[in-house]
Amino acid sequence: MTSVRFGLKMTQSCRGRDYSRQRRELGYGLSSGRDDVHVRPACNRDRHPKRSRRTYCVLWNYPEHPALGKIVSESNRAMAKIVCVLYEDPVDGYPKSYARDDIPKIKAYPGGQTLPTPKAIDFKPGNLLGSVSGELGLRKFLEEKGHTLVVTFDKDGPDSVFERELPDAEVVISQPFWPAYLTTARIAKAKNLKLAITAGIGSDHVDLQAAMERGVTVAEVTYCNSISTAEHAVTMILALVRNYIPSYQWVVKGGWNIADCVTRSYDLEGMNVGIVGAGRIGLAVMRRVKPFDVNLHYTDRHRLAPAIEKELGASFHPNVQSLVKLCDIISIHTPLHPETEHLFNDTLISTMKRGAYIVNTARGKICDRDAIVRALEGGKLAGYAGDVWFPQPAPKDHPWRTMPHHGMTPHTAGTTLPAQARYAAGVREILECWLDDQSVTPLVKTFRTVNQRTVNQKTRYAQPRPCRDRERGHRRGTATPRGSHPVWASRRRRPFAPWRQDDSCWPDSADLRGAPKSSAI
Length: 521
Prior knowledge:
- By secondary structure, this protein is an alpha/beta fold.
- Among the domains are: 66-225 and 415-435, Rossmann fold; 226-401, 3-Layer(aba) Sandwich (Rossmann fold), CATH 3.40.50.
- It is 26% helix and 12% strand.
- A six-stranded mixed beta sheet has the order 3-8-7-6-4-5. A six-stranded parallel beta sheet has the order 11-10-9-12-13-14.
- The longest helix is centred in the C-terminal third of the chain and has 19 residues, at 417-435.
- 48% of the residues are buried.
């Protein structure tokens, strides 16, 4: 059973559910043009948690997109120009061999969500795909269909390749690790732009308000690197607490200075670990540090299900202020928007325990840059680690490069070789749906969209994504970030989805009154 909504569709109906009526109402060619038709997601995770099939998410889908109408109604589609911005190749050149011969095969994500399922792939999983020579494995696929693919790492400044190629581009592909910032000015300049794809999770490099006003669809590959990021966060926690990096440096320098190594080395066991945002990544971090016999604390707009709290022995805090006072380690996994920008500033850090650690794998601007430096230099914080900066790439004189007791890396947490294979396949699947008039119908996916009429200027920071309702103990409902951020509405108007790096919405029941009936599929 298939339902089509504004050219993008969902399938995989649950047992006993029939969506033929919605399909007939909406039609395949956007002929109805109905903006008031409500379609419920094709799979209810509460009832069938293992049958949920969501591989990517539409942050914004323009309701009357002319290009989508062409995709569905025309047999011969005009050729498109796709501009893909990826990070540079290794210094020694694109690798000819790798440390391992293969990568583990994963059948599904935690909770049952399936991995991307494109019709085919033109790359070997485990190869470097996220750099300019890897091209996300897209060139053969696109050029065989007559489309033009431009791949570059030169993205900043008025004379950059990206700036020159943008005006006539129909599709822009970018990564959170090497973001091509689609500002209001750039979107206005890109007269032909119809689709912005994030090869990964987190699209705050796109001005969503401008995208909505110009009818640009913004999509990303959900869950593709959530576990990769969680593993990176746990690695950084251990590196800070055990003073691993300075100890390694003594070995490289030819020393054996044990006293220097252990002066700042502690056991993780027994520490209070606080999670800011228990979404997919935050919850995965909690599950991975629990075996170290730590005391888990978390704050989130909504509590986890009681069974999950009991399993992890996790204590809920209603706000971040009460959390940081008790915790030895803070791991941040909340999205960037107005309420979280510079959340960790001088005022909040002053309430933390002396000698606490902060790990930030969410977004760099959640932490006040200079406040972090002052806290490390003054001894308030024992360490800070993360892989997120602002801007990205960070300038050479960025103070986080030289501040004491840090464990910073470039933005690498979510671009491991296995993660690259997943988000490259997800991008390929999105493009198949967008570019191939035959691929709209058979795709087995669900989408969520943002309704244009419920969004104000704050929307540029919003990143609404699917919610893991089953672990939260409640059904899907209406979600909106606080302050009239984007709304996703269903028949059951119940708020859900808290702070999340990877599937975030900020609910507020007051914002739901008067919301239109449909904005999602």
